[in-house]
Specification:
Elements lengths: L11 H13 L26 H17 L3 H13 L4 H17 L3 H14 L6 H14 L3 H14 L3 H17 L3 H11 L7 H16 L2 H10 L6 H14 L3 H14 L6 H16 L3 E7 L6 H18 L8 E7 L4 H15 L3 E3 L7 H11 L3 E3 L14 E3 L4 H15 L4 E7 L2 H16 L3 E8 L7 H12 L4 E7 L13 E7 L4 E4 L3 H13 L6 E3 L8 H4 L8 E4 L8 H14 L5 H18 L5 H10 L23 E6 L2 E4 L2
Parallel strand pairs: 1-2, 1-3, 3-4, 4-5, 6-7, 6-10, 10-11, 11-12
Antiparallel strand pairs: 8-9, 12-13, 13-14
Amino acid sequence: MVSRSVPRAPRLRACSVALAVAFLAGLVTFGEAAPTPKTPAPPRSGQAKSPAATGQSSLDQAKRLIDSEQPEAAAVMLRRFIESSPAPDLLDDAYLLMAAAMFGMKEHAETVRYINQLLGEFPASELVDRAKLLLARTHARAGNLDLALPLLSEVRSLSADPGVKRDALRLTGEFQAQKKDFLRAIQAWLDEMPLDVDDQARETEGQIRQLVNEQLDVRTLVRVREVYPRTFPGDVASIRLIELHTAAGEDHLVERDLRLFLNRFPTHPYAAKAAELQSIVRTKFKSHPYSIAAIFPMSGKLAPFGTEVLNGIQLALERSKDGGEAPSIGLIVKDTESDRATFLDELSRVLSDDRPLAVIGPLLSKNLPVMAELAERTSIPLITPSATALNLRRFGTYVFSTALTYGHQAKRMADYAIREQQYQRVAILHPDTAYGRDLARLFAQEIQQQDGEVITSEAYKEGDTDFRAVIARLKAEDLKKYGVEVLVENDPAKAAGKPIGKKRKRLLYSPGFDALFIPGRSLDVGLLAAQLAFYDIAVPLLGANGWNTPDFARVADRSIEGSVFVDGFFADSASPVVQEFVERYRKRFQATPSLFAAQGYDAARLAVEAIKRGATTGEGIRDYLIMQHDLPTLSGPSGFSPDGILNRHVFLIQVKQGKFVPLE
C-alpha cells in the first residue's frame, strides 16, 4: 500500500488531533511529522500559563506520544486530562485523541466508546467526520466491513472538507478491495483522484494499476474493460487480458483483445506494440491449414452468453488435438457488438480473405437472415448454436442449428405426459412473453396430435407475485368441463383463528386435468406452485428449461417436489460423454458448463469431425452435415432434420428432495 499524507485541517487546534487520528488509521506514515499548531503567546515573567494554554500543551504532548508509537503513555495523560474537567472547547479534541490512542492499543470497544462520547456530547464539532473515519476503521479492523462502509458513505455525502472526503474515498476503496468487490474499489479510488493534491493522484493511479495487474482474474478484468471501455483503467485491464491470453496460448482471444484495444485506444502508448502483436497473431492464424470463425457478441449485455458459447467451441478444438490425428484448425473470433456499423463489412472480409471452412454463429435469430445470405454467397456453412428460428432452409442450404428449440421442448414434454405417464387432460399456465406463448402453443399442438386434451391455456404477467386472478380463470375454465367443487365441513381444530367447536364449510376443488404445464422462469414458478397448492390444485407440474437454475430446487416451495421439466443439457447426467465434457470444462474454465456452452461445443465438434473425415471446403462440410445421421454430439449420435436443425436429445429432469435428478 502506498502511504500518502493528509491535507491540513482548517482549524489549527484540531490539526494535530486529526493528524494523530489519520496516523493511526493508516493515512499518514510514521516518518511524516505533523505540523505544529499555533499556541498561545508565552506568559510574561512571573505570569502563570492560562488554563487554555496548559490544556493545549497537554493535547500536543499526547499527540506527540501517539505519533511516536506510544499510545499507552498518551492514554494515561489523556485520561488525567479528561478527569480534570477541561474547557469544553478542548474536550472533543481529547475524546478523539483518546479514541486514537485506544485504536493504537487495539482496544476496539474503548475506541468505539470514546468516539460515541464525542458524537453524543459534541454533535456539531468539526471533528465529527474525522471521528466517523476512525470509527469506520475500527469496525473494519474488527472484521465488520459492512458496518464500516455505510459510515464512509455518510462522511462522503455530508462532509464539506475535501480532505475528509478524500480520506473516506480512499478507505472505501481499501475496504471494498478487502471484500473483493474490486469494481467498487476502483470507482472509489477514481472518485478520490480529483481530490488528491501534489503527487497523491499519481499514487492513487498506481494503486489502481497494482490492483488490476496483480489481483483481478480474467472475468473481473473483462468486467473492468466493459465498465471503462475508453478510459483508465479499462486500458490497463485490456493490456492485462492480452498478456494472460498470450501466456495461455489462446490466440483467438488475443486477437479479439488486440482488436478491441486498438479500436478503443488508437493513440495509447501501447498501441504500437498492440499493432505489432496483432500482425504476429494474424500470421500465426494463416499458418493453420484450416480455420473456423466464431461470430458472437463478446462485449455488451449479451457478452456472458457469447463467452459461454466460445468456451464450448474452444474446448471442442482442444479435444480434437488429444489424439494427434486432427489437422491444425485455427479459430477466428469476431465480436458482433464491437462496431455494429462495420461488422458486416468485416465479416465479408473474413469470409473472402481468411476463408474459414465454417462459421459458428450468430447468437440471436434476428441476425440469421443477413449472415445466412453471406454464407450462401460464399458457400461456407453457418452453424448457429443458440438461435431458435425454425425452418432454416428458407435461408439457404448452408444454414444449420445445434440449438435447443421450443419445438424440441414441447414435443419431449408432450411425449412424457401422454405416452409415458398416460395423462389425458392437461392445462397450461404460461408467461405472457414470446417464449411463454410459443412454448404454450407448441405444447398444446403436440398434446392434441397425440389425442390428449388441453383444458385451458392461461397467461400470467412475468414478475407478478400474486397469481390469484390467473388461478381463478384456470379453475373457472376447468369447472366448465371436468373440474368439481364439493362443499365440505372443515375440522374446527384445523380452522386457524376460529374457536374450537364451531364448524365451517368451504368448497373443495378437484381439478379435472391430470397435469399442469408451466413454461416460465424458475422465480415465477416457485411462487406460482405454492399458490396453486393453496387453492387445492395438487397435480403434477411440468416445465421447460427456464426452470433449470442452480437455486430453484433448493429454495422453491416443497409444492414443486416431483415436478418434471426438460432441457437440452444436464450437467449431472450419467452419460460418460457428458461427464467427460463437464469435467474438462470445469478444469479449463473453473465453472459448470451451461446449455450455451454445450451447444457451442456440439457446433464446433461437428465441424471438426467433418474436417477429420476429409471435408476441405465449405461445400464438403455442408454435405457431410446433411448426409450423416450419427454425428457425435454430447447427447448421443444424431443428425440434422431436413430443415437444418439438429435432432437434439432432450433431457427429462425431476425435482427430488431439493435436487435435480435425471429421469432417464
